[in-house]
Specification:
This protein has about 475 residues and is mainly alpha-helical. The chain has a domain of about 130 residues. The protein is about 75% helix and about 0% strand. It is globular and about 65 Å long.
Length: about 475
Amino acid sequence: MELALIVIAQIFASLLGRAILRFFFYKEIRKFALAEKIALYYVIGMGLIPLYMMLLNCFGMKFSISTIYLPCALIIVFETLHHTSRKPTLTGAQNSSRSRVRIDPVNAFLSLGIFFVVFYSFFTGLVKPIASFDSVASFAIKAKIFFLGAGIPRGFFENLAQNFPHPRFPLMIPLQETFCFISMGSFNDILVKMIFPAHFLAFAALFYFGLKELTGKRCALIFTFLLCSINEVSRFSAVGYTDIHFSLYLFVGFIYWYRFATTASGGALFSLFIPAVFSAFAIFTKDTGFIVPFLFLLLFVLYSKERKEGKGAILAYVRYLALLIFLILSWLFVRLAPESTHRLMTLNALNPAYLVSAFMDRILPVLYEFQVNVFNPKRWNLLWPIFIVLFILNYKWSLRTRLKYITVFITSIFLLYLFFYITVEPSAFGYGKVYAQSLRSGMNRHLIHVTPFAVLWLALIFKKMCESKKEKA
């Protein structure tokens, strides 16, 4: 019964995401493949429900089946009725009779490989309860408190949460787990982990379809399989941490904008809506999520300058920021409250003298742990050595073509994380050997956030190399 109820909860979230997207962007998403739409519906629905629960908390309302399901169900019903009379015209491909499908053995092998990796993620996630330290102490225990209290208890952040690691950590994961507990009507530390491999499955689908639009089916299958088979990516897809969620939000926000910028796929408004929504999700998932809106604004400015849009782009930026702030406003009220004492970075971070001193003190441990991570084939296969070599060989092309947006994104993330390692509060990472150990346990998870962009970059380089060979032939 609990299994059926949690599956229904995931379907319900997908229907909510479907209602939102179809209401605002019916024309844009019609051309997407069914699997791509389902994955996008699910991720958006499961991201919006925790933000809605945070809004309930701000109004002093309890978490329950009625307060969560009923308003969302009304949205779903309204959207369904709104589009009942709409009869989409069939495209030529839809009108034509289906031709006989030929099974490509290579594509079939790659598809089976992706299926196996995702299936194994579900298997490893659902054979044991939430057990790793942060997944319990930082997320799951909060979800149980919220479930038992039918909401976020008054004074939770100032009092009770101080007894747990990361007391004011964003609540996307705890509230997703709370939603699952409410849907099941009880605790189940095994079944609640379904949300992690489910997001991994959606990640694989959205990565594949995003890449397919840019490179073609075969190349997309190859590099989706490479991404899913990376040990750190597949391992963290089932342990109950935030990093796969964060990486998913960061990448999906980027890829739909990038597809619009490079192939004119989708509308301009849709390409701003998706980054805004997923920036909000990222902020509500990790403390470092505050960097995401600035990364997208940087891309928007570069794109506007290239197209010489000038003042016309300002309205688009305002819409982007307005939607982002609207979605995250309930969390900002809590995060910026005067009672908040949690700081991720020291207030001296912008002091030049302190910054130089911290840089000299920490740069060597950072570089050492960085090379330990990237040159570890057990964690990353050969992804990072290959990426570094090909980047050096193709750096001019990477900065002159549309690939420059991916290059800027990757470089910006690396530089921002470097700044974070240098300026992070000692209370968060410790001193001396403690700092090095904390860096070691954190850097591999931070690299997960950049990994899909590195794989995307390699896929486009691979496509360029194949095209060059065809031209020479």
